[in-house]
Amino acid sequence: DQQVKQNSPSLSVQEGRISILNCDYTNSMFDYFLWYKKYPAEGPTFLISISSIKDKNEDGRFTVFLNKSAKHLSLHIVPSQPGDSAVYFCAASAENTGNQFYFGTGTSLTVIP
Amino acid sequence: EPEVTQTPSHQVTQMGQEVILRCVPISNHLYFYWYRQILGQKVEFLVSFYNNEISEKSEIFDDQFSVERPDGSNFTLKIRSTKLEDSAMYFCASSDLRGTEAFFGQGTRLTVV
């Protein structure tokens, strides 16, 4: 049961342009969403989060947008840099799932210099 | 910067053997987790631990798995009788508050032969 979905397994973007990574979810009880970045042979690194009471959260070059009615969130990276090349996972949790985070399958971002 | 540390980084074991994966969470964190990622697949929740007991566990976390916090710093995952399909990256994570971002360790690559 895939409650969090990332339908694009990969994305290539030119350096300096915007990267948009998408994530959809099915559980309307999810109220906290996170993006993690993962390099090969390393653990996921927390990037940015958003709670369901907001529709946007910005941190430097990273902005997460949440559309609750569409059950969709996206991560915007602008400007994209070669060091951003990694696998990006979205994750979600809900009050009734306690501490359990549900992860998407990841999107591999390649930023081309 | 505080970090979650995991040992060993790579463990090779024979099918049927017991393995113990070790983790040192961030010191002031109260919630501890184990996740795993089979090669090419999504990050999957195994178990969360709070106040010296399991708070949630997934279907993956069957009787072959156990967790323990033997002292004030370590958090271990034991697999009693490993199977080939247990081969994966195992990630330990911790968080300070319920439902907030979890910080992940570098992972232990478990290979069952």
Can you give a write-up of this model?
The complex is a heterodimer of chains A (113) and B (113). By secondary structure, chain A is mostly beta strands. Chain A has one domain: Immunoglobulin-like (Sandwich). Chain A is built from no helices and 11 strands. In chain A, strands 2, 4, 5, 9, 10 and 11 form a 6-stranded mixed beta sheet that branches. In chain A, strands 1-3-8-7-6 form a 5-stranded antiparallel beta sheet, with no helix packed on it. Chain A is globular. The model of chain A has no long low-confidence stretch (mean pLDDT 93). Chain B is mostly beta strands and 113 residues long. In chain B, 0% of the residues lie in helices and 50% in strands. Chain B is built from no helices and 11 strands.
Quick one: biggest sheet of chain B?
A: 7 strands, mixed
Q: CATH homologous superfamily of chain A - what is it?
A: Immunoglobulins
Q: What is the CATH first-level class name of chain B?
A: Mainly Beta
Strand segment count of chain A: 11
Proportion in helices of chain A: under 10%
Q: Could you tell me the radius of gyration of chain B in angstroms?
A: 13 Å
Distance linking N and C termini of chain B? 36 Å
Tell me the fraction of residues in β-strands of chain B, as a range: over 45%
Count of individual beta strands of chain B: 11
CATH class of chain A: Mainly Beta
CATH fold name of chain A, please?
A: Immunoglobulin-like
Biggest pleated-sheet summary of chain A: 6 strands, mixed
Short description:
Chain A has 113 residues and is an all-beta fold. Chain A contains no helices and eleven strands.
Question: What brief labels describe this structure?
Answer:
heterodimer, A: 113 residues, mainly beta, Immunoglobulin-like, six-stranded mixed β-sheet, five-stranded antiparallel β-sheet, 11 strands, globular, B: 113 residues, seven-stranded mixed β-sheet, four-stranded antiparallel β-sheet
